[in-house]
What does this fold into?
Amino acid sequence: MTAVASEMNLYQARMRVEDLRAQIRYHDYRYYVLDSPEISDAEYDELMRELQELEARFPQLITPDSPTQRVSGQPVEAFGVVEHRTPLLSLANAFNYDELKAWYRRALGILEIESFPLVCEPKIDGLAVALVYEDGRFVQGATRGDGFRGENVTENLRTIRSIPMRLLAKDVPPRFEVRGEVYMSKTAFERLNEERTDQGQPRFANPRNAAAGSVRQLDSRITAQRSLDIWVYQLGWADGPYPPTHQETLQWLQDIGFRVNPEIGRYEKLEEVERHYHQWVDRRHDLEYEIDGLVVKTDPFQYYERLGVVGREPRWAIAYKFPPIQATTALLAIEINVGRTGSLNPYAVLEPVRVGGVTVSKATLHNEEDIQRKDVRVGDTVIVQRAGDVIPQVVGPVVSKRTGREKPFVMPDRCPVCGTLAARPEGEVMRYCPNPSCPAQAFRWLTHFVSRGAMDIEGLGESWCYVLLQEGLVKDPGDIYSLTREQLVSLERMGEKSAENVLKAIEVSKNRPLGRLIFALGIRHVGSEMATLLASQFGSIDALAQASVEELATIPTVGPRIAESVHQYFRDANNVRVIDKLRRAGVRMAEEVAPAPAEGPLAGLTFVLTGTLASMPRSKAEELIRQLGGAAGDSVTKKTDYLVVGESPGTKLQKAERYGTRLLSEQELLELLRQHGAL
Ligand code: IVH
It folds into this structure.
């Protein structure tokens, strides 16, 4: 328990929990959907850990949709979705020996035994995949996705030489699934980045992103050109016998043709694991691929069921993470970046330094409080950390190196781009530029609006957004929809064909789901998941715009800060004008109610599901309902006929009670589906 958590009252904890959840969801989206994380794994783990601690202390704040309660991520639809027969879990982390011991002791306590053997493996920093074999042939490969549903990347995985298409042995189970990590070696990564630089393409931040980006290519010819490899580390499931321990299973997998990492060891005692770990902290750099820790697993499968799974993490395994990679360098300046909501984000300009094999010249400093808390001064020698990847952070100054000439940082009180006096709303750590026509904000908002997770207007990347603003063709996102062919063609380097494609993409974007539009509006503190939640609760922009702060705050996970921000957003004349433009252009402003097919035994009936089902993911149940002609809705309305109530139901249950909607248990739903032959 951190000191901070133990001093908080319920109200403060609620605020912090909401804030952490919003941050985690945003970073999940960057990581899993966009393959473009903004923070390091260590920072992410820290957010998750703080949330877990707060939820442990204030269990009343746990909601079913908290990131701690589910496997995160969302599959990209373009690939086709694969339902995993058993979920792909993630791992809890231990950052030191005490935490590893605590994990082991807890397992011993549950099993009521004195000790059990452990298997230790390198934790490969790549992309998890699940490979299905039928009669010894590779038939399907999928990414992890949200753990329940992944993307079908079979064709791309076929291009990886170390994934066997046919197995060596004949006597294998008729159908089984193995799991492993696809990765790119350090040399292949360097080579790829060099080529990309030569061709004027952006570089990948690290081998993991390069591997993920390569596997998730819609054109498998591109995947085939990338040097990818796999280490297989787990049996997912099997219709047939397999060995009784993890180590023997890995040996068996190797014998039948899979690539299993040679650096795997089995230990009787935890102290041996600790010794092994210390050797690896140094040796990791000798490997041809990146690892960010060890995975410690219980060897005998007989214990797995009793140990079970908490949230999304099994108790039979744990990731024993390596300490983050650090370096020291000079802090040359602190500069300000203007975010899309007008937030003034300070960042450090550094004397370039190699940290964990990557040259770092900029690092985040989050906000002015963070700078003050760390007492970072311009001219300081600072410790920079790249905890595994991407955006590095400044840990703090090396005070002993101070000369007295360092300058404390003073946050500018004006927006560095438009010069407007910046405001710091009460209770917020950020300052914001309040000028709606600040060029920096307009640019950020525009690029956010057209981005993949928002309205996804293909062909309008950052550079075109810049040109459109410069040329005065667009002042805000509402203007995108009145762009004409002539205007586009008049732009330098925009050909007839590209203009045609951009116009098509703009047209297509008019029909994006409501949640995407809400996200695209760039409401402060509203990330993509929050936007989806608001869409399902309110059903239309108008209903959302009319909601009072109190009404908004009754929704779980919407705290006072978010409620206030949403309410304010729709009271701003400039925002109202943009929304009007969007409406006039024909952008969809309400959730589409899926029309129920007229055929089938459930035709004319609308079902809504809440909570977790034990027998299948909710999406699967919804699909079966649709197969029988029923409709599956997102939110309970007066028109909902049945609410199917799973474990830990959400607020939909209260709503259903208010409307007098009929309730169905999971058992009743299964019976209904069975009765009509869907099961
Ligand atoms: S076991 C529940 N073994 O780490 C067990 N995972 O944080 C789940 N990973 O999604 C997987 N190396 O992508 C396992 N030797 C290894 C691993 C490994 C890398 C990744 C995997 C997983 C993530 C969990």
